[in-house]
Design a protein that fits this description.
about 200 residues; alpha/beta; Rossmann fold; 7 strands; about 45% helix
């Protein structure tokens, strides 16, 4: 589903560019640049492959890049895609506030930008943001903890909860580590005598 949403958005951008540029543009759909933050996590490999597949099914050439969790590398990759005249850039940023200058270059070349899953901040040159409802996902995490650990059982022994979130530099952090407490707080409030210790951690 997600790959088709991205593909549909890119198709809309491409159609707008065709109508703006005239019929000559219809001879080729062109290249879409897709930049994922790392290949060291399975989910980004799957997301990259899914987006690439969805766009190729629509007839686009896809240049898929992985930035290995290095911001300068990601900036260089985006610059390279701008030089290659990508029709659209799909970017899952490492640091959502570190791409201001390079996105200005994309805007100067008339290249639309889709922020994928991680919101890009400090730039007016982001045309769309595509993601899950991360707050709802966080609430579901809390519900799963309650069910899986039987937390609503009055006889439950004291326990430790530690939630792991995304990079500190991503906007997903707030949703993924705060939302579970909307489900957990009523349980903890009802049974404070269980000496619950809770903490949060995230990857660096």
């Amino acid at each position: 589903m997600k790959k088709m949403l991205v593909a549909a958005m890119v198709l809309l951008f491409a159609m707008n560019m065709v109508f703006a540029g005239g019929a000559a543009e219809t001879s080729s759909k062109g290249m879409v640049g897709v930049v994922m933050p790392t290949r060291s996590e399975e989910r980004w490999n799957k997301d990259g492959a899914a987006v690439k597949s969805g766009l190729e099914e629509l007839g686009y050439e896809v240049d898929l890049q992985f930035s290995d969790d290095d911001i300068p590398t990601q900036v260089r990759q985006i610059e390279d895609l701008i030089t290659k005249r990508a029709k659209v850039l799909v970017i899952a940023s490492i640091d959502g506030s570190a791409l201001t200058d390079v996105l200005a270059k994309a805007a100067d070349e008339g290249i639309p930008v889709i922020a994928y899953d991680r919101l890009i901040m400090k730039s007016p040159h982001v045309d769309y943001y595509l993601s899950f409802d991360n707050y709802a996902v966080g609430q579901q995490m809390g519900d799963i903890l309650i069910q899986g650990m039987n937390l609503d059982n009055p006889a439950k022994k004291p326990f430790l909860i530690e939630l792991f979130g995304d990079h500190l530099t991503t906007t997903m952090l707030i949703s993924s580590t705060t939302a579970p407490w909307t489900s957990l707080s009523p349980i903890l409030t009802m049974a404070p005598s269980r000496l619950v210790q809770a903490s949060r951690a995230w990857t660096q």
